[in-house]
Design a protein that fits this description.
- β1 and β2 form a beta hairpin.
- The protein is 26% helix and 25% strand.
- α4 runs parallel beside α5.
- The chain has 2 domains: 192 residues, Quinone Oxidoreductase, Chain A, domain 1 (Alpha-Beta Complex), CATH 3.90.180.10; 150 residues, Rossmann fold, CATH 3.40.50.
- By secondary structure, the chain is an alpha/beta fold.
- The strands form 3 sheets. Strands 3, 5, 6, 9, 10, 17 and 18 form a 7-stranded mixed beta sheet that branches. The chain has a 6-stranded parallel beta sheet with strand order 13-12-11-14-15-16, sandwiched between helices.
- GO terms for molecular function: S-(hydroxymethyl)glutathione dehydrogenase [NAD(P)+] activity; zinc ion binding.
């Protein structure tokens, strides 16, 4: 039997979000209804609202979420009613060529709910990243729910569902930072700050944080940065960048073992590329726009060696990683709660977009 709840939608490109009634259908055989407890406000939600991802309006926004499984479909075995779960947007299929090769983090056929949520007039909604969690409840595939320790604060735990896992995973999984290595992170939003925390967790000895915002540079020290660089005061491009020169100065003239670009624009990409030691590893986790192009001399690409890798969702496996980092947080070893800058209501999402764009928060979290 369907039910009507409250949710936040983007009705058309660039328009302010609206809080409306949405209809959740009865779950399909492998679907579940989750009662949402908290959901972070992510840049991706803003990108959906502004039409920068796709044009399938109206969108039901929200995806960095945690909640309680309320109703399960008849064939559900992965979770049960009452489980505290974090939502994930890569519910692997187990059958595609990536999964069969033992690389499920690159699954090409991830699962979503079998039915559509709608407006009261029957208009189908497109849930952000297949989740749609700025709502009292949402409908997802069972594989999109990862059970974790219920002692965790829902507002903090839910952030592992997207941005925090992306940055943390870029450091721990994609870059595979080892104890004693040096790391530089470019861009200190939630993703970059999570990369800083991940580098510390992995045992990096020198962690250099780079940003144009002095406030964020101060925050980075709290997450584990040993050195900070205010790039707003520095000039130059590519190998001649003053940012690159400062990073080399901090690393005996060599550059760092690992660099992480958490912005995704070409100036930070080039800084990350040239700040590496020879044979150093570079990870791009910041998402570029559709018109960006990588432009470096081919001899520089060849001559510096090492590796250049994008990080998709931090190369995470939710079933492995979400419970692990929740447990580390509860042990006091990973500061998940520090990413929660403010707690807001479901009617405050549009205002939170403005706060986010101003750079005044790491994450605003809607509590429901």
């Amino acid at each position: 039997m369907s039910e009507t709840v409250t949710g936040v939608i983007a009705r058309e490109k660039g328009a302010e979000v609206e809080t409306v009634n949405i209809v959740i259908p009865e779950p399909g055989p492998n679907d579940v209804i989750v009662k949402i407890q908290a959901c972070g406000v992510c840049h991706t939600d803003l990108a959906y609202r502004d039409g920068d991802i796709e044009d399938a309006f109206p969108f039901l926004l929200g995806h960095e979420a945690s909640g309680i499984v309320e109703t399960v479909g008849e064939d559900v075995t992965h979770v049960q009613e009452g489980d505290f779960v974090i939502m994930n947007w890569r519910a692997v299929c187990g059958e595609c060529r990536a999964c069969k090769k033992g690389d499920p983090k690159y699954c090409f056929n991830t699962h979503n709910a079998s039915k559509k949520m709608t407006l009261e007039d029957g208009t189908e909604l497109t849930p952000a990243l297949g989740i749609g969690a700025f709502a009292d409840k949402t409908l997802v595939h069972e594989g999109q729910c990862t059970k974790v320790d219920s002692e965790a604060d829902p507002a903090a735990a839910g952030l592992l569902g997207c941005g925090i896992m992306a940055g943390l995973g870029a450091a721990v999984n994609t870059a595979d930072i080892q104890r004693g290595e040096s790391v530089a992170v470019f861009g200190l939003g939630g993703v970059g700050m999570a990369a800083i925390a991940g580098a510390k967790l992995a045992g990096a000895s020198k962690i250099i944080a780079v940003d144009i915002d002095s406030k964020k540079l101060d925050w980075a020290k709290e997450f584990g940065a040993t050195h900070v660089i205010d790039s707003s005061k520095l000039s130059g491009e590519g190998d001649d960048s003053e940012v690159v020169a400062q990073i080399r100065e901090l690393t005996d003239g060599f550059g760092t073992d690992v660099t992480i670009d958490a912005v995704g624009i070409m100036p930070t990409w080039q800084q990350a590329f040239y700040s590496r030691d020879h044979a150093g590893r570079m990870v791009m986790v910041g998402v570029p726009n559709l018109t960006s192009r990588i432009d470096i001399p081919a001899i520089d690409f060849y001559g510096r060696g090492g590796s250049l890798r994008p990080a998709w969702y931090g190369d995470c496996l939710p079933e492995r990683d979400f419970p692990t980092y929740v447990d580390l947080h509860l042990q006091g070893r990973f500061p998940l709660d520090k990413f929660v800058s403010e707690r807001i209501g479901i009617n405050d999402v549009e205002e939170a977009f403005g706060t986010m764009k101003a750079g005044d928060v790491l994450r605003s979290v809607v509590e429901i």
